[in-house]
Design a protein that fits this description.
The protein has one domain: TIM Barrel, CATH 3.20.20. It has 14 helices and 9 strands. The strands form 2 sheets. It has a 6-stranded parallel β-sheet with strand order 2-3-4-5-6-7. The chain has a 3-stranded parallel β-sheet with strand order 8-1-9, covered by helices on one side. The protein is an alpha/beta fold. The chain starts with a helix and ends in a 10-residue tail after the last strand. It is globular, with a radius of gyration of 19 Å. Bound molecules: S-adenosyl-L-homocysteine and iron/sulfur cluster. The site of S-adenosyl-L-homocysteine has 18 residues, from loops.
């Protein structure tokens, strides 16, 4: 049997691979369909056929960081900055509940636009709507993470972006890899469900470093892993870069599913930006979560991490109907549960 098929079989049965084996899968192409089908079987066996929907609220695009790839970076003067009032955020969450979401993800740039008590107010009010709450607001102190947790936050998303220190440091001026890891460790210790992930196709990123990323997710025992291609943004220093490919992102995701069989893995929006069936293909290659946008009005358009973002002119009601139809179309069902990780 070819080496690649042996490796895929081993991963499907043991959920363990060496770095070298992961590199073999990432660099060969002939057995990609086998890889995707194995990831789909593991997904079905461990997390079932239900798809968890998370309503994404992009509540502010103000950011103090300068990540080279991101359109919200502080030095980008072409972005009209906004921050929603706490009552507006709570209202968006209430509407999300009305559309049938059981979880909202509160995402923003990293900033001090909201005090800890503003955040506590927002979190506790949304919690009283009987919604699970995921935060994605960047690097904070452990005390701040604790305050959000005490107010009712359940989960936190903070991608490591890349475990290649050199690449990390080149792309994140003024930030440190150590602090990123410190944040993830603190979040785990505080009892959050922790999500991390990486960008695929960053400048100077290698297959070896992508393999390290996957092994990092496993070592952290991440509860959620969000992966997507890096999409160059014209208003950033990486405007001229090539960006990541859809297939490579899908492969990193499928291998991640084989190694972390019971994790929650979203079919990300960035995947759909590169392929118009991207999220459904991802759902058939290991993913079990989708995060439709529930931000209203003009704000979607102003939250420009990367160009070509899908659904910027759609309403939350439209997105909900659209995604439900697509999920039924591939023979899966929308979950009515909160969608916490169930360890197996
Ligand atoms: N400020 C928070 C959350 C918002 S950014 C944080 O940084 O954690 C959310 C994610 O968007 C980032 O983790 C990054 O992986 C992704 N992102 C940013 N710019 C991107 C680009 N050009 N292409 C693809 N994804 C991008
Ligand atoms: Fe800010 Fe997050 Fe974008 Fe970095 S990735 S510039 S922290 S919004």
């Amino acid at each position: 049997m070819p080496n690649e098929l042996d490796i895929i079989n081993k991963a499907e049965i043991t959920h363990c691979l060496t770095k070298q084996e992961i590199v073999v899968l990432l660099t060969s192409h002939e057995y990609d369909q086998h890889l995707f089908m194995a990831a789909d079987r593991v997904r079905s066996k461990f997390v079932g056929d239900q798809v968890h929907l998370r309503g994404l609220i992009e509540f502010s695009n103000i950011c103090q960081q300068n990540c080279y790839y991101c359109g919200l970076r502080k030095d980008n003067v072409h972005v009209k900055r906004y921050h929603l009032q706490p009552e507006t955020i709570i209202e968006f969450a209430r509407k999300a509940k009305g559309y049938g979401y059981q979880t909202v993800v509160l995402q923003s740039g990293e900033s001090h636009a909201y005090t800890v008590s503003d955040m506590q107010y927002i979190i506790s009010n949304i919690k009283s709507l009987d919604l699970a709450i995921t935060l994605s607001v960047g690097e904070k102190s452990k005390a701040e993470y604790r305050a959000y947790k005490d107010a009712g936050a359940d989960r936190y998303l903070l991608r490591i972006e890349t475990t290649d220190r050199k690449v990390y440091e080149a792309l994140h001026p003024g930030m440190s890899f150590e602090n990123r890891v410190r944040c993830l460790t603190d979040l785990k210790e505080l009892g959050y469900e922790v999500g991390t992930g990486c960008l695929v196709g960053l400048p100077n990123q290698t297959m070896e470093s992508l393999a390290d990323d996957i092994l990092f997710f496993k070592a952290l025992d991440a509860d959620m892993i969000g992966l997507g291609p890096f999409i160059p943004n014209a208003d950033t220093p990486l405007a001229q870069e090539k960006g990541g490919s859809f297939i490579l992102s899908l492969k990193v995701m499928a291998i991640t599913r084989l190694l972390l069989p019971d994790a929650n893995i979203p079919a990300t929006t960035a995947m759909e930006t590169l392929n118009k069936e991207g999220r459904m293909i991802a759902l058939k290659s290991g993913a079990n979560v989708v995060m439709p946008n529930v931000t209203e009005g003009e704000y979607r358009e102003m939250y420009t991490l990367y160009p070509g973002k899908i659904c910027i002119n759609d309403t939350p009601a439209h997105c909900r109907g659209c995604i439900t139809g697509k999920i039924s179309g591939i023979g899966r069902q929308v979950s009515t549960e909160y969608g916490f990780r169930l360890r197996k």
